[in-house]
Amino acid sequence: MMKKFITLSMLFVATALFAQEDAKKLTISGSVDAYYQTYLTAPDNDAPSFGTAFADQSGFAVGMANVIASYEGEKVGAVLDLVTGPRGAGATFNTDIVDGIVNQAYVYWNVSEGTTLTMGRFNTFLGYEVIAPAANFNYSCSYLFSSGPFSHVGLKADFTLSDDFSLMLAITNPWDTNNISMSGEYALGAQLGFYGQYLNLYYDSGNAGGLGFEIDYTGGFDVSDDFFLGINAAYNDNDGEGFYGAALYPQLATSDSFSIGLRGEYFALHGDGDDLPSVFATTLTGSYTIENLIIKPEIRLDALTNADGGLLGNVIDNDGLPADSLAAFTLAAIVSF
């Protein structure tokens, strides 16, 4: 009887240890954010818009909440990223902001030390900014990020070519086709990385609202221990029409808990016509960290650089007259876990 008890005890301990070891492969992370926004040059009750993604409400508003479950085995793994809230709905083109939304869902296989295959839905490789606000310095988003794809559904292969060079090749459904491709067409993507600088290429036929061709550079440099300069530039063409622009992201850390950064962006549409919309947007953001909480006060000014106001929509000033600029103050709070 004692032998059986010892044997069962040993089996129980072994099972518990195995379960603990297996649980270490599963990690949970995510973020929750909310903000307050008021327009400085326009009445809040007319709800003007910057023409960019997310953070487009006046008064108090919820951004998004996301929970990411990641499983990492010896050779294979999987990621499930669920989001809810207006920001998550906008990123996934889902109008239901109450139910859970799949932002990312993919599996991967580490074929070798330098090669990884990934299949499923994953966030885009284009651009400087990302969907989750905790990973961006500025709380509001740029025109370049808002105009490109947010996610892809398909297969990609990542290659570590050397200590300095990396390469990614992808075949996916067309631009922001988040479930299945009904057109029978596919998109091609590539990324060449060198010392933290990335040259990105994307192509689809442009049919059924596709993006067409885009070339995008994303990178940055540590000017000093406390000063970083981020850079993003892109050109898009879809059958003779599209957009182009560039943005600089200087960021200065004044202490361990506070940094201040500026985003200066020029963005324009191109195609037929002599006076297509273009805009210069300046965003000044502070970032104060308390444990896992980030508080971001932000002032943003977007000014049209020509007579066509299409990028800002029907913006008016505080007197109710048509305007060619829009300014806002935003205070955001983000908790990551």
TrEMBL record:
Pfam families: BBP2. Residues 1-19 form the signal peptide. It comes from Algibacter luteus. Coiled coil: none annotated. The keyword Signal applies. This is Putative beta-barrel porin-2, OmpL-like. bbp2. Keywords: Signal.
